Amino acid sequence: MRRYGRLLFGLGLCALLITTVAAVSPGQRDDQGVRKLGVGPAYEQLGKVAVMHQGRVKPLDTVAREEVKHVFSRETIKLLDDENRVVETWGPVAAFVDWIVRPEFWDSQPFILVDYLPLKRQILLSSIREQLGVVAAKSTTSADDKGRLTRLIEDSEITTGMLAELLKSSKLAADDQKTLTVLADKLHEEHKWLTPDELENAKIKHGDHDEPFMEWVSQLDAQKRKFDADPKSAQRLTEIEKRAIDVGQRLVTYKSYSGDEMRSAGLIRIMPRPSSRAALDYYKEVIPKARSVQDPRELSRVLTPIEFDALKALDTYWNDTPLDDRHTPGEDAKFDEKFSVWLSESSVWVPLKVLLKAEPEGLVKAGYPDADVRAFLTAYRQLENAETSAPGQVAADAAANLLKTSRALGEAVNPGKYPTLASMDRESHFNAVNPFWQAPFAYGAALALLAVSLGFAGGRRSEMGIAGKSFYTLGMLGLAAGIGLEVYGFYLRIAISGWAPVTNMYETVIWVALVTAVLSFTFELVYRRTFTALAGAGVALLGTITAANVPLLDPSIKSLQPVLRSNLWLTIHVLTEVSSYAAFGLAWGLGLIATFYYLTATYRRTPTFKELAAPLLPGLPLLATGGAGVAASYGLFGESWTTGDPLFYVFAIMGGIGWMVSLGTVLACAGEVVNRLTTRGLDDQPAVEVERHAAAGSRPRPSVEEIKAMAEAAPPLQLDARSRSMQQTAAMIKPLSNFIYRAMQVGVLLIAAGTILGGVWADYSWGRFWGWDPKEVWALITLLVYLVPLHGRFAGWVNTFGLVFASVACFLSVVMAWYGVNFILGVGLHSYGFVEGGSQGFMSLIIASMMSLPLAAYWRRWLGYNSLAA
Questions:
Q1: What does the pLDDT read at residue 642?
Q2: Confidence check: pLDDT of 451 > 80
């Protein structure tokens, strides 16, 4: 396949150039004059303050990054002016702290992500109509312009184009033109953020009346929960309604931290609960005061925040305690001992808002050390004043003082159990370095360099020459660098969480990327043919990029479900099972490379483009019908065209098949184009003599000695250029098929061992070895699916193309066992540790696209040996 050398070299060189530019240049260059706030040692110190968030103690840096990214979509907030230019950038810790200290500033800043244009138009429609009405009512506005403005106000939808057209044709005053320009910019698809005030004041057209945006979102959320519980009891949400819920959740997240309300979702729990004798006496004092309140709804008004919080903690403990063992603190010594241990080790921490609303005397009475709690409150007020006077530019000593006093108070309240500064520093370092985000650059460089080296002598290292070997060596170093970054990332993540790194979907994806890279690197060291390293770098690149950019994969380190809290079984069962996916992923990557060769190979005959395009006749109608049906089910054509679940899935399947057939046909035609470009003049080349390697015939497979004897006795074959090209394709694909076979063997061994170990763990945890749980069933299905091509290849029933095709098709069983059970089925004992949803439509599109490649190769190969006319 030397004829592909230039193509592979050029593609690899382009990929290398793109990767290098992406790695060297920043994501977005700041304009001159942009203020960079929240950078420097002060906010690094603030980021190390220990807080409890979502059931886990973590540094404030982690909380800030997670919440800012949720609200803004990135960890660094960029504030824009009216002309959509960046004027300020805020680091995550500074932005998060400033939300709390200066909510009046942030309420008017555009940083709440609204990236769905139809939804943004609905949110802004009422406000834009109001502002256009103000312009139309001015005495300086001409009659013609008033007419245009009135017609625009009455339109059911206002777009950027409409406003731009009005600006061109009108003769408005300069300030009115600026108003329309600002409105047009807000409606533009590049303007993806709105202010909290705009969202809270927005009115949405709902039926025959306008409704506040957040009330509409609340109704949609209730409808979604009802539909999830029983699809027949509520209507399916449209895409715009789903996006509205997401926007509402972002706004609620911000308001939870910036407002005074005690919403559990937005509480920064900054201090452990006291468990001393004084604390127990405080609980004993609060209980009679609470019981004197007749209406439970009045408790939060009658009790102080610190009293109400203490009462909630006691109520939580009582709910988990048998009725006969419930006592009032201070009345039973055994109860006091157990309650004190629970307060120290298991209870949630006290929110910052509670501490700030309490008087120092009240906190001391609740069990906090006098000097330490006063020092902490003073340090926080000083930080608050510093942030107010110089937003995003707090002095390092104020931040260091808060860190020092918070640690002193925490260690005094909970000695021996308060997290160490080293643990907080480790997690902050992990957030800053982010090895899993850096790994794609190394894998991308490796993929590009190895693709370039493959253009030299078809990947045979001994024939590459100095240039080819240089690219190959650099590519292997890039692959090793990616592996090193992931290993370092897992080392830090394990040290932070204390668990094996396969507790959620995000961790399994990056683990599969790592194991695939390690397997490919090992195979490459043994066989030296470039293919395994190239496939491993590609799969690892895909895995790490997916983990870094897909919102569904949450990188947050969270508390584990109780059933998962066994490092032994997480290590020997889950790591083994997930590592099998890596082996199958490597086989899939090798299969895609081999499929590319089949797609562009030379065959006995050259099919015509008319023959290649024949599947478009059924494919395009299926795609159009299915796509229209799915769009109608989401309300794109109005409520009268919406469909129920049965028709929705019928249309979805039709659209998926139509897309797969249509795309496969296009790829087959593209493969033919590549073949004709790389084999131009092939039939004009003279025939040459080549040695015969095996005797023809259908008798049983001969021994090695018989093959050698026949090869020596047989005369040389006369091969024309087409036959030589076919022989080169076979020579190139043969090692690929061998690598695919080896990778499948490793995967089958791992998944078989993992399934058996999982049964042992199930017997240990649930009292039965096998229960036909969906995860168990699909692990068994995956094992059986891969055993079929392995056994068929060993028995001689499956040819090389069949093995290549199976390496891609069989990976669908891995996708179902890995993704489908958790995000499509969403049931069973193994559905813990993951989230619901899963973007099934987008994933189905990816799967259909993936399968279109081997189908295209099969179609073109079949036509290469047969004719539709025949």
A1: 60
A2: yes
Structure tokens at 737: 């098929």
- Please spell the DSSP secondary structure of 86-140, one letter per residue: EEEEE-HHHHHHHHHH-HHHHTTS--EE---HHHHHHHHHHHHHHHHHHHHHSTT
pLDDT tens digits for range 207-226: 677 899 999 999 999 998 89
Q: Please answer whether residues 362 and 306 qualify as being in contact, where contact means their C-beta atoms are separated by less than 8 angstroms.
A: yes
Q: Angle at CA 497, nearest 5°, toward 495 and 502?
A: 105
Calpha distance 372→380 (Å, rounded): 12
Residue 4, SS3? Answer: helix
Task: Extract the tokens encoding 853.
Answer: 């490649």
Q: Under a CB-based contact definition with an 8 Å cutoff, are residues 544 and 443 in contact?
A: yes
Give me the sheet containing 35-37, strands edge to edge.
35-37, 86-90, 77-80
3-state helix/strand/coil string of 497-563: HCCCCCCCHHHHHHHHHHHHHHHHHHHHHHHCCCHHHHHHHHHHHHHHHHHHHCCCCCCCCCCCCHH
Over residues 513-530, mean pLDDT = 93
pLDDT, one tens digit per residue, over 295-316 is 777 787 888 889 999 999 999 9
Of 186, 196, 209, 200, which Cα lies nearest the Cα of 120? Answer: 186
Could you give the 3-state DSSP secondary structure of residue 326? coil
Classify residue 630 by burial, with Cβ atoms within 10 Å: 0-12, 13-18, 19+.
buried
pLDDT interval class at 493 (50, 70, 90):
very high
Q: Which amino acid is at 850?
A: M
pLDDT band at 819 (very low <50, low <70, confident <90, very high): confident
Say which residues have a Cβ less than 8 Å from residue 535's Cβ, sequence separation at least 6.
520, 586, 589, 590, 592, 593, 739
Give the count of alpha carbons within 13 A of 474, CB side only: 16
User: 590 near 805, Cβ under 8 Å?
Assistant: no
Locate 823 and state its tokens.
């995000």
The tokens of 171 are what?
A: 């003769």
* CA 807/CA 854 separation, integer angstroms: 10
Cα(839)–Cα(571) distance, rounded to whole angstroms? 29
Q: Enter the DSSP assignment of 686.
A: P
**What's residue 279's pLDDT?**
92
Specify the amino acid at residue 870: A
Element (H, E) at 80: strand 77-80
Contact by Cβ (8 Å): 825, 801:
no
Separation CA 600–CA 733 (nearest Å): 12
Instruction: Say which range, 265-274, 490-499, 859-868, has the weakest mean pLDDT.
Output: 265-274
Retrieve residue 157's tokens.
């939808």
Quick: pLDDT tens for 220-271.
999 988 987 887 788 878 888 999 999 999 999 999 898 776 565 567 899 9
Residue burial 286-319, b: 16+ Cβ < 10 Å; e: rest? beeebeeeeeeeeebeebbbbbbbbbebbeebee
Tell how strand 688-690 and strand 717-719 pair up: antiparallel
Q: Using the structure block, give the residue that is written with the tokens 């309240």.
A: 413
Please give the Cα distance from 196 to 251 (Å, whole number): 7
Residues 358-407: tens digit of each pLDDT:
999 999 999 999 999 999 999 999 999 999 999 999 999 999 999 999 99
User: Token digits for 494?
Assistant: 């394990």
d(CA 585, CA 868): 35
Q: Which of 125, 267, 258, 121 is nearest to 188 (CA)?
A: 121
CB 419 within 8 A of CB 133: no
Number of CB atoms found within 10 A of residue 346's CB: 11
Residue 108, number of CB atoms within 10 A of its CB: 10
Every domain of the chain and the residues it spans? 1-30+434-559, 264-394
Q: Determine the pLDDT at residue 20.
A: 52
List the beta bridge partners of residue 112. Answer: 194
Q: What average pLDDT score do residues 688-703 get?
A: 50
